[in-house]
Amino acid sequence: MKLQRSPLQLTLFYLLFAALWILLSDSLLIWLGLDGPLQVALEILKGLVFVTITAALLYFSLNQYQHEQRRVQLHLQRNEERLAQAMDAAQEGMWDWDLKSARVFFSHRYCDMLGYTPEEFGDSQQVWRDHLHPDDRDLAIQRLEALLGERQPYYENIFRLRHRDGSYRWLHSRGQLLLDEEGRPSRFIGTSSDITQRRADEDSLRQAAAVFDSTQEGVLVTDNTRRIVHVNPAFSRITGFSAEEVLGKEPNLFKSGRHDTAFYQTLWHALDQRGSWSGEIWNRRKSGEVFPMWQCIRSIHDERGKLSHYVAVFSDISALKRSQRELDFLAHHDPLTTLPNRLLFSERIEQALQRAGRDKLRGALLLFDLDHFKIVNESLGHNIGDQLLKMIGERLAQCLAPQLTLARLGGDEFGLLSDDCASAEQASLLAQLLLDELALPFMIDGQPLFISASIGISLFPEDGDSVEQLMRNADSALFRAKSSGRQTFAFYSQDMTAIAQQRVRLESELRQALEMDQLRVHYQPIHRLDDRRMIGVEALIRWQHPQRGLVAPGEFIPIAEDSGLIGAIDAWILEHACSQMQAWRAEGSDLEFIAVNVSSRLFGRGDLGLRVEQVLRETGLDPACLELEVTESAVMDDPEHAQVILTQLRELGVRLAIDDFGTGYSSLARLKRLPVHKLKLDQSFVQGLPDDHEDAAIARAVITLGQSLGLRVLAEGIEEESQAIFLRGLGCNLGQGYWFGRPQPAEQLMSSRSTV
Ligand code: C2E
Ligand code: MG
Ligand code: MG
Fold first, then answer.
1. How far away, in angstroms, is 717 Cα from ligand 3 center?
2. Which of 617, 643, 611 is nearest to 630 (CA)?
3. Most buried of 352, 452, 611, 750 (most Cβ within 10 A)?
4. Which ligand is nearest to the CA of 657?
5. Residues with CB under 6 A from ligand 1
6. Distance CA 490, CA 501 (A)
7. Ligand 1 atom, smallest distance to 743 CA
């Protein structure tokens, strides 16, 4: 039975019971009317029964009370434990300030947060105050006093308390003010949690956010499906895309198209394998402009190691690149003329030397400086001197092929590098071109300024295999050019200089030769071998040089070909030969043909047919009387083209002969299809006849070949009768050579015409 009566009820119950007991028991005794000892005994018994019953009741209620007390205490204790565990779990410390006694209870956890045990920390409010951070103390106490003064029920505050180790911990406190019955503050109770780590995390987050927003680098964050989830302001500034325009899209929106798939594959592979990639990448801005950037991409994983995001940080390096280019340009170019400087020139020579070694090419290095430039500077001022140097740079750069390197090496010294210059002749032509260009006046302030230069040339690989050696040798050649009277050039090798200078001299003289009518035509007879009758002539050019006498074509035809004069020369001889033939025919000569040589250079050009046609028309010569000789090598250089031209010529009705046959590399298949009439066996195979077996074998082969192709065969260079007899024996049709007659002027030829 559970006795749940208040003390008052129990007392009243006891009073009622006791009163009823007395009244009823006394009334019973009176009613029984007992006297004497029995009454006394009954009265004692009545008293004892009463005491026994009440003692039992007392015991019973006390027992109940005690039991209840224990139960409540146990319950309380359990609750307390639960609360403590919950607070511990929540990492909350508790305090309970009894305002009346000014004692504070700090929970174990509270003290623990500060590195103390409750005993060490004590229970005074002053301890708490003493542990406050100096910067927070005033404010914290002020808040507390305001709370007590204004009796605000709830309290919340953040402050720092000193830990036992001297560091400070941020505490977040929440509490409640409890009032007594009279409404006066009696207790102040609450909890505190250590938020030091959270504050640090928040601080770093805030800092990171500030960095994210203010950094000059663009930042782009995508989720693991590569959709953009974040960009910072710098991203928008660099790319021109606002955040709204790109969020949710994929970064391939910025692809420039400059990188191939392999590039992106490598990038993603690096991200998968190493978790990061950095490098230069070209992307496209919103404006469409493609720009370079330096980008670092990192993959981010969550706490379970699962890929969650990619973060790309990039900077626009277009300005850097530009300035690098500018710096590079400045480092490698002369600021006045913007031509390459000595450094770049040396690098190019180095490369050219390597290429020459590898590809078996030849090249030339030309160093030149202006003659008497010092005088220009001193008399007209450095300003004019600078202008002149600039103009020289511009003029030369304009007239030189782009693959040549023209450099200003300092002062009035320039350099020219040709990394593909097959011969000394080509180098001398280049030098002459420079001299000619520089010889033209420079107009400065309306005044013509004349300047000349001297040039030193070294050739590679023969004159050196290092930059220094080539430069040194070109420099010593330059010195020689200067000391030999300036406005000239010199090679490092003296022999070369002599040959090249003579060549250049010859070229200019040859130009004059044409104008001054110094060219002559000599005619060499061509005989039939069977009856030895002269049936034709070959026109061979000669140059009647005013000092050197008669110059053979071998000496000047190559120069004429290199300088382009050959066109005029061949036109001249064709015209003379045709009119001479026409004149002979008019005189009644029975010559069947006149042979004229066609230069391989001219043969390669398309207008040969037109030119021949024009000459034939002008001279009235029967085309059948004209034979054109084309060398075997000119035909076989470009057989397709030769076929076309030869067909054109044949259609005009002229005869065609292949000159110097045997010296080239004829393809028999092609030869078969060429519309020619005659093969001219080269004189080198005739020289050894009739004794030389090899010459004899070749002669026999060529003659047989000609016969089988239906062509006539002419043997050149017959100097002896035995040769003529031998060749005739082989079936050769025609012969030409000193034994029949040397090349000679027309009048002489006719007067000495005879049958040998
Ligand atoms: P080619 O057309 O093969 O001329 C034959 C050359 O052999 C001529 O030399 C001639 O004088 C020479 N010759 C003739 N018979 C003998 C001989 O018995 N013994 C020796 N050793 N030589 C003999 P030339 O006149 O000096 O001409 C040389 C080359 O110059 C010609 O070779 C021809 O390719 C070229 N040539 C000559 N005149 C002209 C021309 O007007 N125009 C062009 N484009 N080339 C020409
Ligand atoms: Mg010839
Ligand atoms: Mg020949």
1. 8
2. 643
3. 352
4. 2
5. 524, 540-541, 552-554, 557, 570, 573, 597, 599, 629, 659-660, 683, 716-719, 736-738, 743
6. 8
7. 11
pLDDT above 60 for 2: no
The answer to whether 438 and 452 have CB atoms below 8 angstroms apart is yes
59 has pLDDT over 80: yes
> Which residue's alpha carbon is at the smallest distance from atom 38 of ligand 1?
540
Q: How confident is the model at residue 756 (pLDDT cuts 50, 70, 90)?
A: very low
Ligand 1, atom 44, residue with closest C-alpha: 599
Give the whole-angstrom CA distance, residue 408 versus residue 293.
Answer: 35
Atom 2 (ligand 1) nearest CA: 597
The beta strand positions in 317-452, using DSSP E, are 363-370, 405-410, 413-418, 442-444, 447-449
Ligand 3 centre to CA of 633 (Å) is 12
Give 597 Cα–ligand 2 centroid separation in angstroms: 5
pLDDT classification of 175: cutoffs 50, 70, 90? very high
Question: Which residue's CA lies nearest to atom 33 of ligand 1?
Answer: 597
Question: Which ligand has its closest atom nearest to the C-alpha of 573?
Answer: 1
CA neighbor of 721 nearest in space, from 702, 740, 749: 740
Q: What is the pLDDT of residues 418-474, one digit of tens each?
A: 998 888 888 988 999 999 999 999 998 888 888 889 999 999 988 888 999 999 999
Is the pLDDT at 85 greater than 90? The verdict is no
Task: Give the pLDDT score at 606.
Answer: 66
Q: Tell which one of 716, 736, 756 to mutate to probe ligand 1, the residue whose CB is within 8 A of the most ligand atoms.
A: 716
Length of the chain, in residues: 756
Residue 131 and residue 161 in contact, taking contact as beta carbons nearer than 8 Å: yes
Tokens of residue 237, six digits: 């500034």
Nearest CA to ligand 1 atom 25: 540
pLDDT at residue 558, rounded to an integer: 80
Amino acid present at 673:
R
Q: Cβ(420)–Cβ(322) under 8 Å?
A: no
Residues 636, 670 contacting (CB under 8 angstroms): yes
Q: Cα of 505 to ligand 2 centre, how many Å?
A: 27
- Number of the ligand closest to the Cα of 554: 1
Q: How confident is the model at residue 58 (pLDDT cuts 50, 70, 90)?
A: confident
**% of the chain surpassing 70 pLDDT:** 98
- Sequence-distant contacts of 492-501: CB under 8 A, at least 24 apart: 492/456, 492/457, 492/458, 492/459, 492/463, 493/459, 493/462, 493/463, 496/424, 496/457, 496/459, 499/424, 500/424, 500/425, 500/427, 500/428, 500/431, 501/428
The pLDDT score that the predictor gives to residue 116 is 95
Ligand 2 centroid to Cα of residue 524, in Å, is: 10
Q: Concatenated DSSP letters for 668-707? A: HHHHHHS---EEEE-GGGTTTTTT-HHHHHHHHHHHHHHH
Identify the residue whose C-alpha is closest to ligand 1 atom 46. Answer: 597
- What DSSP string describes 251-313? GGGGB-S-S-HHHHHHHHHHHHHHSEEEEEEEEE-TTS-EEEEEEEEEEEE-TTS-EEEEEEE
**Whole-angstrom distance, CA of residue 629 vs CA of residue 631:** 7
Atom number of ligand 1 nearest to Cα 566: 44
Tens digit of each residue's pLDDT (9 = 90 or more) over 480-525: 888 777 778 889 887 667 777 777 788 888 888 988 989 999 999 9
Q: pLDDT digits over 358-390, tens only? A: 888 899 999 998 988 888 888 888 899 999 999
Element (H, E) at 586: helix 566-586
Residue among 249, 277, 250 nearest 263 (CA): 277
**In ligand 1, which atom is closest to the CA atom of 629?**
2
Q: d(Cα 612, Cα 652) in Å, to the nearest integer?
A: 9
Which of 537, 540, 594 has the most ligand 1 atoms within 8 A of CB, as the residue to mutate?
Answer: 540
- Dig out the tokens for 346 from the structure: 């040396």
Work out which ligand 1 atom sits closest to the CA atom of 719: 18
